[in-house]
Write a structure and sequence with these properties.
This protein has 234 residues and is an alpha/beta fold. The chain has six helices and 14 strands. Strands 1, 4, 5, 6, 8, 9, 10, 11, 12 and 13 form a ten-stranded mixed sheet that branches. Strands 2-3 form a two-stranded antiparallel sheet. It has a two-stranded antiparallel ribbon with strand order 7-14. α3 packs across α6.
Amino acid sequence: MKAMVFAAGRGTRLKPLTDTRPKALVEVGGEPLIAHVLRRLVAAGVTEAIINLHHFGEQIPPYLASQGNFGLRRVAYSEEPELLDTGGGLKQASWFFDDGEPFLVHNADVLSTVDLAALMRAHRETSALATLAAMARPTARPLFFDAENRLVGRRSASKGDELVRTPHGEVSPLGFCGIHVASPAVFRELTETGAFPIAGSYLRLAATGAAILAHRVDGAKWRDCGRLEDLRPL
């Protein structure tokens, strides 16, 4: 099983820690964020991973090599001279996902107890293009899912509440966890170019009827370690 880890961000809210290192190597509980993520991916069955690089990205490969790549059989890197955001970064790494199998995508700055193997199983049991780990939690920018767990809209600062397709049943605002599974067919549908967020692409595809589904993980622990005050163990 393959995975992509988003590790290219500048981590500006983690200054001064990110003045000399990438966000993925900022430590929580005495260990870099990316170590927490890779151990969980390997435990879920991931054997190959690609990691995107930008801000101090040259520090990440030697660190992983010093740790035996955490048991991964293969690690590849996707360098981004200019940040491509999550959608552009995933699109640039499309060459890595050449086996026709669905793959995990995980933000390097997310700590959680989300059952990644269960997320993959849920994806395989449907014909979804993508399956997003999502939970009921406070967030200013929730995604909206209907009673069939289909992505149907979002809330944004600029447009407020917005539906992109007609929902079936009750609509629930959920927080996207920065963890999802995608089928390789998604690359044919990513018509955006340059830097773009994957959530925007998923909303566009949902509007056309594509199956972008939620996998509810309400009982899991979760934290986005994007701020200094968030750098603590779960």
